[in-house]
C-alpha cells in the first residue's frame, strides 16, 4: 500500500472518516522525526498519537496508532496522517528535508541569519520568541490573556472544549495563577488584582464553551476571587482617596462583565471584597454611590430577576447601618420596601430593639406581599412567632407552633408541648398525629411523637406497613413485642431476598441479617439462615454470602 493508492486498499468507510479528519485539520504537529519516519497527533474524542514509516517511494511499511482500533487495515487516524503526509510532500517536494539534522550542521552565524529572517517575516515567530525570552517579572494583563488563550485554542474543537480537554485548556490559567502566587503582596498588590481579574474574565469565557464537570474552571475563578479578597484585606500601607478611586475604577468593568454574563457570583464577590475598605476609612459615601452606579447600569437593569439588585441594595443598607444614622436607615427602608431582604432587615432590627408590635405589623404586611413565595412566607411567620414569644402571647404561639409542627419541625413540636396545658394536650396531640401521619415531610416527627408518647402499638402498626422501618425502630419495640419484631424483621429480609438477583443484592440482604442477629440474638439469626438455605438451595451466590455470616 502506497500513499498514492490509499483509497484502493483502505475500506471505504474508514477512508471517508480519515478524509474527514484530515479536511477538518485534526492532524496536528506533523513531523518527520527521521528520514521517512513520521509522527503526528490526531484530535478526536481523545488525542491519539500516530506513527507512519515509509520507503522512499511512499510505500507504507509500518504504522501505529494509540487508539483502540484493531484490524489489518489502517485506522481513520492513520489514514488522516497519511493524507497529511501526502499533502506535505506535494507542497514541499517529494524529497523531504530533514530540517533538524541540517540545522544542527549549520554554524552559529548561519543560524542567527535564519532566525533574524524569521523574526522579520513571521509575526507569530516574533511573538513566540518575545514570550519565550521575556523575564517572568514582565508579565502583564496582555501577556496573561495570550498565555490563557493559547492553551484554550489548542484544546478547543469547533468552538467547544470537551470534558477530556479541560485540563489542557486550563494550562495557561494555571501558569498565570502560579505566577500570581509568586508575587509579593507588599510590593505587587495591584498587579495581583489585575492579573486575577484577567483569569476570572477569561475563565468566564471558557465556561461558555467547555464541559466543567470536573469543576476545574470554577475552581480557578474561586481561587482568583479569594486572591483578590485577600489582597484587598491585607492591602499594604494606609488607604487614601486616590488608591480607593483607582481600584474602584479597575474593578468596575469587570463587575459589569460578570453581571452581563450572569454565570458566576463574581460581581457580588468583587463588591463585597472592596467593601472591606470601609472598615479602614470613611469611604461610605464613595462606596454607596459606586454601588448605585452599578445598579443603574444597563448590565444590571437588563437582568430578568432582581435578586442581584436586592443584594446590592443590602450592601448599601449595611453601610448606612454602620454609620448609625437611624433616620437615614428608616428612609432607606421606606424607599426600597419592595425588597424582602430590606424588609427582613427592618424587622430584625425592630425585634432586637424589643419593638414586638412593630415586628408583628411588618410581618403581617410582608406575609401579604409574599403570599405566593412559600419560603419567605414561612420566614415571616417565624419572625412573628419570635415577637409573640417576646410578648408572652401564648395563644398565638400555640397556633403557629402547631402549624410549624405539621410541617415536621421538631423544634416547634417541643415548644407546642410546653405551651399547651396538660389537660388540653391529649386533644391537641390527636389532631397533630392525624395530620402528620400521612405526610412524608412530617413522617420523622410523627414517629418521634409515637416514641415520646409511648404509643407503641401505633409504632408497631407502622412497621407492619413499612417493614423496612423495623431496622431502626426495633429498639423501641423489642422489650414489649419481641415476637412481633422477629416476625416483621424476618418478613423484611425475605422480601429483600425475593427481589435479589445478583451477588451485590444478596450481600445487602446479608448485612440486614447481621443487624437482625444483633437485635434478636445469634439463635434467631441461625434459625433464619437455615430457613433461607432450605428455601433457596439453588442460589449459589446467596448460599455463599450466608456462609460468611458469623
UniProtKB/TrEMBL annotation:
Q: Which InterPro entries match?
A: Znf_SWIM (IPR007527)
Would you say which domain of life the source belongs to?
Answer: Bacteria
Can you give the residue ranges of the SWIM-type domain? 48-86
* Alphabetical UniProt keywords: Metal-binding, Zinc, Zinc-finger
Record's protein name: SWIM zinc finger family protein
Provenance organism: Planococcus notacanthi
